[in-house]
Design goal:
- The chain has 190 residues and is an alpha/beta fold.
- It has helices at 2-11, 24-40, 51-64, 67-70, 78-82, 90-106, 126-143, 158-167, 186-189; strands spanning 16-21, 44-49, 73-77, 111-116, 147-152, 170-173, 176-179.
- The chain is built from nine helices and seven strands.
- It has a seven-stranded mixed beta sheet, sandwiched between helices.
Length: 190
């Protein structure tokens, strides 16, 4: 995955990648590799992750990186991120997203982001997920930074997988990155 991501990020700045992971072991390996690669490129990494998994990630990073490198990782609790208004409200989530990225953007600091998307159920509210992902995808054209959105594959109904392929131009599968055939570019909508 490391080489594929590096190639993709060199070619495009505003990259929106869908990652449907199978099991926590592969998830942990991929998220840690992604963070490590970014930090070693002297990029900050915004990690939107739950408390429990973040501590495991931090533990693994501590074995691979120096304490100075770890300072490049900015953790955002994903529960706070998605429920910042008290409920799943896409405009509030997007405002939180913008505020989180604002410092990096204003100061022209190179960064990448990883968002672990977890809902109580992936059956509903699909329209909220669709609204959020479509809005974020359009914003990445302007903001120009890489973002991976990680969803647990086993918890995703087929409709959600199809929906997510329309708002993510790239899909990370195992150790390969493919172009989504279902992607609907926000630039074409204008």
């Amino acid at each position: 995955m490391k080489n594929k991501m590096k190639e993709l990020f060199e070619d495009y700045k505003g990259v929106h990648v869908l990652y449907c992971y199978k099991g926590m072991e592969s998830y942990m390996e991929d998220v840690v590799d992604y963070i490590e690669a970014g930090v070693l490129e002297e990029e900050y990494v915004v990690l939107i992750e739950n408390d429990h998994v973040y501590h495991k990630i931090h533990q693994e990073l501590s074995t691979r990186l120096t304490s100075e490198h770890i300072k490049f990782v900015h953790w955002v609790n994903n529960f706070d991120f998605y429920y910042s208004s008290g409920s799943c409200h896409p405009p509030s989530i997007f405002d939180y997203f913008n505020k989180t990225m604002q410092t990096y953007m204003e100061n022209k600091i190179s960064f990448r982001a990883w968002a672990h998307v977890e809902w109580a159920t992936m059956e509903e509210p699909l329209h909220i997920i669709e609204d959020l992902e479509t809005t974020v995808d359009a914003a990445l054209y302007k903001l120009q930074f890489p973002l991976i959105c990680a969803y647990q594959k086993e918890r995703m109904p087929e409709y959600l997988k199809t929906l997510l392929m329309t708002s993510h131009p790239y899909i990370l599968l195992e150790d390969d990155i493919i172009v989504s055939e279902h992607y609907k570019s926000p630039m074409k909508a204008k």
